Structures are given as structure tokens and as C-alpha cells.
Amino acid sequence: MTEVSVTKEDAVTSGDLVVLKSVNKHFGALHVLQDIDLTIARGEVVVVIGPSGSGKSTLCRTINRLETIDEGAITIDGKPLPQEGKALARLRADVGMVFQSFNLFAHKTVLENVMLGQIKVRKVDKAKAEEKARALLDRVGVGTQADKYPAQLSGGQQQRVAIARALAMDPKVMLFDEPTSALDPEMINEVLEVMQQLARDGMTMIVVTHEMGFARSAANRVVFMADGRIVEEAAPDQFFSNPRSDRAKDFLSKIL
Ligand code: ADP
Ligand code: MG
């Protein structure tokens, strides 16, 4: 991975990249995010875990403004989230997002999927976009699939294309929302390995996952959510060996 040259140690010391302050959000009567304070340093890898329905996906979606918030503030690299227009499109490009369900463009080839955003949002010329797309597809191990359509690829390959597509925008931070939950078991590791490498190369990452092995080996910090709140935050070793809250103890007893 050539794009990111800083080491994790350098990166973590150079400031906060994503800051959420007293963020609150409702869906009608449901208070889905409650007083969320969360700061993510440059180069940091934060794994978000918690029971289904606790607000993890909504949290991710507020960070690239797929969802609005009712109260509080979110800044990316010191800038508040833009409300609309071109500034919002650029913000979305700064925040790479990988979903459970791949979300590739079905009628575009793998190569076109990774070129499109570069051309439309970043205004990169076609030859440069193609060169970068091919390099990224190689990097995630699907270079030979460039001319196929998404449906011709396995789930693990499609998810790696989705990661390449997000990386093509040179995001400042990558959000992963249960990126391996829809995959057959034998394909989970090939996606986690790409994410591990990205983490080692210093990418700032927020990862919602149930893969506790990944959390232990890649995360700088685990954030445990329940009922719309951050209940506990700790280094992975500390969190897994000695969770403080009853909610976290209960959750871990069910999944480990
Ligand atoms: P998680 O990702 O932790 O499972 P979500 O953020 O998806 O949790 O959802 C949190 C809660 O918000 C759930 O109760 C869910 O049903 C509700 N919810 C999510 N999206 C919407 C929406 N667009 N409209 C209404 N309720 C929603
Ligand atoms: Mg979710």
C-alpha cells in the first residue's frame, strides 16, 4: 500500500481527525444516539461493538452525513460537516464507507466501479483514474477480475472491490459497517486481511464488527455501544479481559 506512508505511531500523535461532541439523534420517539462523545485520532483504528439495534450503523451514517443529527457537532479534520452540495460530496469522498452489502454498481465493471468516483468527484482524468484503480485492485488482490461485473465475483472479492473503490477517493478515514457479516465463512479472512493491512499502513478506521479476533489484533480502542450510548471504551486487551460494565460483560458472554 503505497499511498499511506506515515507509520501508525507518527499518525496518532498528529491530532484528532473525527470528533463527535454531544451528538444526539432521534428516529421519531426512538432516541437512537444519546450524548455521543467520540474522538478519533489520525491513524487510529477504533472497533465499535454492541448488541443489534444499539445505534452502531446510525453512528457510522451520521459521520458521512447519510443521516442528519438533531443536536451536537461532528467535525472531520477540524471542519464541520457540510449540509449539502459539492462540499458534502467532497466530505463523503473524504470518508470512505464500506457496507455489509457491498453496494457495487451492478451494471459497471469492477474497474469502472473503482474509476467512477475518481472521475466524477475528484475530477481525475480517465487514464490516471484507470491506473490508480488497477493498482488498488492489485493491492486488495483482485487485479485479475478488473473486467468482470460484480455478480461474477464471490462475496469476498466484491467486498475487496468495495474497499478499493473507497480507497480510490483518498479518504481521510474509512468506515466499515459489518463488512464481513454477509460473507460465507471461508471469505471472511480475505477481507479482514485487507483491513489489517490498511490498519498497519496507518489508515484511520472506524470498524463495526463482530470479529473479535480483528478487534484484538488491529484495534487501538474498542468502543462498546448499547441503547444508543457509548457504555465503555478501552484498549482491546483491557476490554476483553476485564470489561467494566455489566452490559459489556453480558454481551461478551454471549459472543465469545
Ligand atoms: P445497529 O447497527 O447497532 O444494529 P442501527 O443504528 O441500525 O443499530 O439501529 C438503531 C435503532 O434505530 C434500531 O432500533 C433501528 O430499528 C432504528 N433505526 C435505524 N434506522 C432507522 C430509520 N431510518 N428509521 C427509523 N428507525 C431506524
Ligand atoms: Mg448495524
Automatic annotation (TrEMBL):
Locations listed in the record: Cell membrane
Cellular component terms (Gene Ontology): plasma membrane
Domain ABC transporter: 18-252
InterPro entries referenced in this protein's UniProt entry, alphabetically: AAA+_ATPase (IPR003593), ABC_ATPase_HisP-typ (IPR030679), ABC_transporter-like_ATP-bd (IPR003439), ABC_transporter-like_CS (IPR017871), MetN_ABC_transporter-like (IPR050086), P-loop_NTPase (IPR027417)
Keywords: Amino-acid transport, ATP-binding, Cell membrane, Membrane, Nucleotide-binding, Transport
Superkingdom of source: Bacteria
Top EC class, one word: translocase
E.C. code: 7.4.2.1
Topology in membrane: Peripheral membrane protein
Pfam families recorded: ABC_tran
CDD domains registered for this protein in UniProt: ABC_HisP_GlnQ
GO molecular function: ATP binding; ATP hydrolysis activity; ATPase-coupled polar amino acid-transporter activity
Catalytic activity from the UniProt record: a polar amino acid(out) + ATP + H2O = a polar amino acid(in) + ADP + phosphate + H(+)
Annotated family: Belongs to the ABC transporter superfamily.
Name of the featured protein: ABC-type polar-amino-acid transporter
